[in-house]
Amino acid sequence: MTGSYVKVVVAMSGGVDSSVAAALLKEQGYEVIGITMQLQPSDRLAEVADRFGGCCGLGAVADAKRVAYGLDIPHYVVNFRDVFERYVIADFCREYSLGRTPNPCIRCNQFVKFDALLKKARELGASLVATGHYARIENGNGKSRYLLKKSADRRKDQTYVLYVMTQEQLHSSLFPLGSLTKEEVRRIAEQLELPVAGKPESQEICFVPDNNYAGFLKEYTGAVAAPGLIVDQQGNVLGRHRGIASYTIGQRKRLGIANREPLYVVAIDQEKNTITVGGKEEVYATELTACKLNWISVGKLEGTLKVKAKIRYLHPEAEATVTPSGENEVRVRFKEPQMAIAPGQAIVFYDGDTVVGGGSITGHVRTIRTHEKEEGG
Q1: 212 vs 208: CA distance, rounded Å
Q2: How crowded is the C-beta side of 318, counted as CA atoms within 13 Å?
Q3: Residue of 55, 56, 206, 291 marked catalytic
Q4: In the chain, where does the domain assigned CATH 3.40.50.620 lie?
Q5: Residue 56 falls in the annotated catalytic set
């Protein structure tokens, strides 16, 4: 859908990606409205985000306004602090307190960018929302379902954090950068003389300064972390931890345990307040369960499906089979063992460059020892 008189709201974070997205859509004949979302729950946290390069700090508003002025498009600042705090920050704090590893960017896309912002866009008379994500949307070769596909720039592909999008959201969204590389986007920004052309990338989690999760949780919730025991697989006490929110599955550093071989976090028990550690081989698993599923290329999983699966944003895809195992739950079996499967993280399923769907990891089913596998050929 291109041409004049089609109104689109662009989520402008003040960065180069969303700025170029707005510029490209205007060139294509859309009636573009720029919106910068106020997300930080307080001005103090917004100032902190500025210091650490966060995408939703106070400086983002000023940068977005300068870009909008240069592009001659209207620009508004919308207060989404409540929805961001309710659906993103509160969930982040709750998940870490339970020993899980959440991905707040996924929640932000699900509840803020493609829900709250889309509703605001319609209030402004716009039928579409656009962002600077590196991904593509296709209409399934004329079929009824919209497809979410990988970006042309595989290094920047962001489909992992977009798997939660519904058919209605895909129908109402545009990703103008999907066919471009990051280098091409930078060149376009320079050619258009956008004031943010050389602006560096923002950090992944905008509201956590310097990736200090434990410090943020303590400051935000006021809760004092409860120290507990670090044990091995047999239950022997090896040390004490600073609070389970400071740890994640697969973590090796900052355990405070002297051992001849490196130790890794292999399990976190919130009820017992214990951290279980083991050797590297004990971090691997061949199966997992996942819930809170969202399907994109298929309406429903009817039987076992072969896919490539990704258990973290930067983790390589791995061959796997997905099988329904209950109401809105699946079991995933990998061809090769995967390291550090963390409950709370997302698992996303791919068929080539098409996102099949995804869900939230609830736990790994079976751990195997990689050295036994290697010794057995």
Answers
A1: 6
A2: 22
A3: 206
A4: 7-211
A5: no
Q: What is the DSSP string of 71-136?
A: HT--EEEEE-HHHHIIIIIHHHHHHHHTT----HHHHHIIIIIIIIHHHHHHHTT-SEEE---SEE
Residues of the chain with pLDDT under 70: 1-4, 42-58, 140-143, 203-204, 209, 365-377
CATH superfamily of 282-375: Translation factors (2.40.30.10)
Active-site residue, 105 included: no
Please name the residues in contact with 359: beta carbons below 8 A apart, sequence gap of 6 or more.
290, 291, 292, 293, 294, 330, 346, 347
Token code pair at residue 51? 């210091």
Q: What is the pLDDT of residue 222?
A: 80
Residues of the chain with CATH 2.40.30.10: 282-375
Catalytic residue (choose from 55, 105, 108, 291):
108
Using CA atoms, how far apart are residues 107 and 92, in angstroms rounded to an integer?
A: 9
Spatial CB neighbours of 94, under 8 Å, sequence gap ≥ 6: none
Total Cβ atoms within 10 A of residue 83:
18
Structure tokens at 296: 């994109």
Q: Return residue ranges of the chain for CATH 2.30.30.280.
A: 225-278
Q: Which helix (H) or strand (E) holds 167?
A: helix 167-171
CB 67 within 8 A of CB 132: no
Nearest to 120 by CA among 31, 10, 39, 13: 10
- Residue 58 is predicted with a pLDDT of 67
pLDDT digits (tens, 9 = 90+) for 49-81: 555 455 566 678 899 999 999 999 999 999 999
| 92, 109, 133, 140, 177 from 148: Cα distances, Å | 26, 14, 12, 9, 14
pLDDT at 51: 52
- CATH of the domain spanning 7-211, picked from 3.30.450.40, 1.10.3210.10, 3.40.50.620, 3.40.605.10: 3.40.50.620
**108 in Cβ contact with 88 (< 8 Å):** yes
Q: What is the pLDDT of residue 40?
A: 78
The class (CATH top level) of 225-278 is mainly beta
**∠256-275-366 over CA atoms, to 5°?**
125
